[in-house]
Amino acid sequence: MATKTKQVHICQMCGYESGKWLGKCPSCNEWGSLIEETVDIKQKITTRSSKNVPLKLSEITLTNEDRTTTGITELDRVLGGGIVKGSLILVGGDPGIGKSTLLLQICQTLGEQNNNVLYVSGEESGAQIKLRAERLKVITSNLLLLSETNMSSIKENIKTIKPDLVIIDSIQTVYEEEVSSAPGSVSQVRAVTHDLMNIAKGEGITILIVGHVTKEGSLAGPRVLEHMVDTVLYFEGERHASFRILRAVKNRFGSTNEIGVFEMIDKGLVEVSNPSELMLSGRPLDATGSVVSCSLEGSRPMLIEVQSLASFTTFGMPRRTATGIDYNRVVLLIAVLDKRAGLDLSNYDAYVNLAGGLKISEPSLDLAIIFAIASSFRNKNVDPYTVIFGEVGLTGEIRAIPMPEKRIIEASKLGFKRCIIPQANKDKLPQIEGIEIIGVKRIDDALKYM
Q1: Alpha-carbon span 99 to 413, nearest angstrom
Q2: Per-residue confidence at 64, pLDDT binned at 50, 70, 90?
Q3: DSSP SS3 for 218
C-alpha cells in the first residue's frame, strides 16, 4: 500500500489537528498544546466485506455478563462486580500513587483462579518487576512478564500465549512502527489503543492499560483515549499520605458513583472495609474547630473530620485556604457566615481542611464547615459525639440532602449520639433508635446547638 507523509500540528490534550501552528487550541482552549507531528496518508485504501448483518431488537438474545472477580473487594465494587471479559480498562493516576502495585496484586489474585496473565512493561525490566513482586508476595506461576514497547511484538505474543488478562504499563511507552511520530504522541496513543481495542473485542481478552496524568491531574493524551475504552479508573490521593481512593470516571458495565478505599503500607495496598472508622482515628475530642460530617460516595456513607482554624491577622487582606474542599465554596460560606450569622471574619485568616487527605465536592459538608469555622472563631468546642451535615444556601437556609437515613445509621454504628441535619430531611425520616436527631432551618438557629 503506497503512503506519503505530511506535517500536521496536533493538540496533545484533545487531539485537534491543524495544518499550521496555533498558540491556542480552538477545540479545548489549551495554550501551547499543539505539537508538530508527521502522519502517514494512505493513498490506496483496501476494503473488506463485513460478516455482520443487521438484527431486529427482538432477535437479539441477552446473556449474563461474563465477569471475573479480582479477589479485591474494593476494586470489584468500583468495577460493578468484577472484570467483564473482553473489556478495555484504563487506569490513571499520579506517579507513585500505586497503579503498578494494584495491578500486580490483581495478577496474584487472578493467577490463583487459574487465569493466565501477561504483564507487558515498557518502563521496567523483568528483574525490576520481580523485585516489586517479591515485596508484594506475588508468587503465582500463571503470571508472564514481557518488557516490550513494540506493538507488533506485543500482538504476536498475545496471539501465541492467548492469556485471559493483559496489562499494558504504560500506554505512553508503546509505539506502532507504521506511525512515524514519537511514542506517547496523540497519533501513537490513538493507534495503539485502537489495536488493543480490536484484540479485546475480537479475542475476548480483558486488557488493563496504565495511563499517565498531566500536571493538572487529567489523563495525558487525547480525549479519544477515554472514549475508546470501556472503563476509566482514577487513583486519587496524596503521594506521601497512606490513603488511596479508586474512582470510576466512566464505566459501561456499572455505576460511576462507587469508590474503593485503600491504604498503602510497605507490603502493598490493603483494602479499607470501614473507611469511617479509619478516617476518624486519632481525632481530638476537646479541640475547637473540629466537626464530624458524613459524605456519600455512591452508595457508601463515610464519616469525615472537618477541621478549621480562624486566626487573627494584622494584614489588610485576610488569607483563605481550603484543602480537600473547593476553595470558592469555602469563601462563599464565610460570606454567608458574615451576612447571615453576624460572624465578622474580615480580620481573620480562615483555614479549612479535610483530615485524611480526601477530596470531597459534595455540598452536604456545608453545614459542618460553617460549624467548624464558627467553633474556631468563638473558641467553643462542638460536641465530639455529634455529626453535622446539610447544604447551605446564600440566604442562610439549610437545604435537604439525599439519603440522610444512611448517613445517620453509619454515625450511630460508630457511637455518635446526636445528628444535626436539615429540617426538611428530619420531617421525612422514620424514628431511628439510639441517636438524637435535630432539624434546623437556618444557620443562625443551627449555631445555637454549638
Answers
A1: 33
A2: low
A3: coil
The alpha carbon of 135 is separated from its chain's Cα centroid by a whole number of angstroms, namely: 26
Tell me the C-alpha distance between 232 and 230, whole Å: 7
The helix (run of H) or strand (run of E) holding residue 159 is helix 151-161
- Three-state DSSP at 322 gives strand
Q: Is 363 helix (H, G, I), strand (E, B) or coil?
A: helix
How many CB atoms are closer than 10 A to CB 74? 23
Q: Rounded to whole angstroms, how far apart are CA atoms 75 and 437?
A: 34
Q: For residue 114, what is its C-alpha cell?
A: 487459574
pLDDT of res. 218: 58
Could you write out the DSSP letters of every residue in 122-134? SSS-HHHHHHHHH
Is the torsion defined by CA of 122, 123, 127, 130 positive or negative? negative
pLDDT in tens, 389-429: 999 999 999 999 999 999 999 999 899 999 999 999 999 98
Q: Is 444 in contact with 368 (CB distance < 8 Å)?
A: no
Work out the number of other CB atoms within 10 angstroms of the CB of residue 366: 26
Which residue carries 493538572 as its cell? Answer: 216
What is the Cα–Cα distance from 101 to 175, expressed in whole angstroms?
24
Global pTM value: 0.74
DSSP string of 172-188? GG-B-TT--SPTTSHHH
3-state secondary structure of 160: helix
Instruction: Report d(CA 288, CA 82) in Å as an integer.
Output: 44
Burial of 391 (0-12, 13-18, 19+ CB in 10 A): middle
- The total number of residues written for the chain in this structure: 450
pLDDT of residue 233: 92
Per-residue pLDDT band for 65 (boundaries 50, 70, 90) equals low
Distance between CA atoms of 87 and 162, rounded to whole angstroms? 15
Residue-level pLDDT at 47: 41
- Cα 219 to Cα 206, 211, 260, 326: the distances in Å are 21, 7, 19, 21
* Strand duo 386-388 + 320-323: pairing: unpaired
The grid coordinates listed for 447 are 449555631
